[in-house]
Design goal:
Blueprint lengths: L13 H11 L7 E4 L13 H11 L2 E4 L11 H10 L2 H4 L2 E3 L7 E4 L8 E4 L8 E4 L4 E3 L3 E3 L1 H5 L6 H8 L11 E2 L10 E7 L2 E8 L9 H32 L6 E2 L1 H16 L5 E7 L5 H11 L5 E4 L5 E6 L6 H10 L3 E4 L2 H14 L4
Parallel strand pairs: 1-2, 1-6, 2-3, 12-14
Antiparallel strand pairs: 4-5, 7-8, 9-10, 10-11, 13-15, 13-16, 14-15
Helix pairs in contact: 1-2, 8-11
């Protein structure tokens, strides 16, 4: 790919913009879309339509925009049109909100690392070429916004923007709770992290000044929550995959090597007098694996572990438990159909050693 040619001018006039375009030596074919940022309500940092009028008229273009994925004056077509009228765009040009009509057009992203497709306003296919007019800006998140942002997130529909910010997990606009009444004891902002449609984490911002309760800061908080959500959900998915490899298929029983690792950790903590544990071997007969698995699952705590040794025996690792609790544990587990015997420390160490020898990579 050839290096891009960049033209620069210190003359900040509408005519200078047209002259820069002429230097490119490009003739945009067919119906021309001109992508702009229409400007947030109350924000003065956007290119004014009067300044861009000579350039847009030179290419005979139609000003195009797409709705946002956050609350405000640009997240629905009717509100967006009213704001663009307020900012003077309709007075100067033909304007097209590209995602004003459903459905969106979906373009594939070959070799995409995170998202494999992009959802754009369907009207983008009405144009043969596009001119992007951007104002350079330093983004509070630590980046710079310009032409690439105008083409990617800017041409994405409202749903497409949600798709990008969520890392390809959702097309819906998610809500942000704002403590508008400044009720004491509640966070100023709150937003949820969801996995497969279920709320798994709630993110709250406890303090914010009056100046930080504006739409600008709400959008920043929403973007931050989107980044956190992407990272957390990936971590959850990774943990889920790892856990699937830990257990014997369809059971709550850890594989020998994994169980030996947890037992080794428990032994080290006990040796350092930081914790206690009991290792119990399960004996008895069961109708099938499902019945046995169900009994084990209902008999141990979330801090305990059940696993299989290299000798195919089943063990229960009862953490934060000592010999004094053994009679009570034996009786309680027996009532649930699990007959157990305590495993002495020397036998535990042999189990760990054997597992390491058979699986040296663990």
């Amino acid at each position: 790919m050839d290096k891009a040619r960049v033209f620069f001018t210190k003359e900040l006039t509408p005519e200078a913009v047209v002259e820069l375009y002429k230097r490119l030596g490009v003739e945009l074919p067919g119906k021309v879309a001109v992508k702009v940022h229409s400007g947030e309500d109350g924000n003065q940092n956007y290119l004014r339509p009067e300044f861009m009028r000579p350039m847009i008229e030179y290419v005979g273009g139609t000003v195009v925009e797409c709705n946002t994925a956050y609350g405000g004056a640009r997240n629905t077509t009717p509100k967006h049109i009213e704001l663009m009228k307020k900012h003077g765009w309709f007075e100067c040009f033909d304007v097209d909100i590209m995602d004003s009509e459903a459905p969106d057009v979906v373009w594939q992203i070959p070799n995409g690392k995170v998202i494999k497709e992009n959802h754009l306003g369907r009207h983008i296919e009405d144009y043969a070429s596009m001119l992007v007019l951007s104002h350079f800006k330093g983004h509070p998140m630590g980046g710079y916004g310009g032409a690439l942002k105008q083409l990617s997130i800017g041409c994405a529909s409202s749903a497409g923007k949600a798709w990008i910010h969520s890392g390809g997990r959702q097309l819906e606009q998610e809500g942000l709770w704002v403590n508008r009444e400044l009720r004491p004891g509640l966070p100023m902002y709150a937003a949820g992290v969801r996995q497969n449609g279920s709320l798994v984490v709630l993110i709250g911002l406890c303090t914010a000044s009056e100046e930080q309760m504006t739409l600008y800061y709400q959008n920043l908080f929403r973007i931050l929550c989107g980044l956190v959500e992407t990272a957390l959900v990936r971590a959850f998915e990774y943990e889920s995959v790892v856990r699937e490899n830990w257990y014997l298929p369809g059971t709550c029983l850890l594989r020998p090597a994994v169980f030996a690792e947890q037992l080794a950790t428990a032994c080290t903590l006990q040796e350092d007098k930081m914790a206690h544990h009991l290792l119990l071997q399960v004996t008895g007969r069961f109708k099938n694996r499902a019945e046995f698995n169900d009994r084990v699952r209902r008999s141990i705590r979330s801090t305990d572990a059940a696993g299989v040794g290299t000798n195919n025996a089943v063990y229960l690792l009862m953490n934060q438990t000592n010999e004094e609790n053994l009679p009570l544990l034996t009786r309680r587990l027996g009532e649930k159909g699990l007959h157990v015997t305590a495993v002495p420390l020397d036998e535990q160490l042999r189990l760990i050693k054997t597992a390491k020898q058979e699986a040296p990579h663990v």
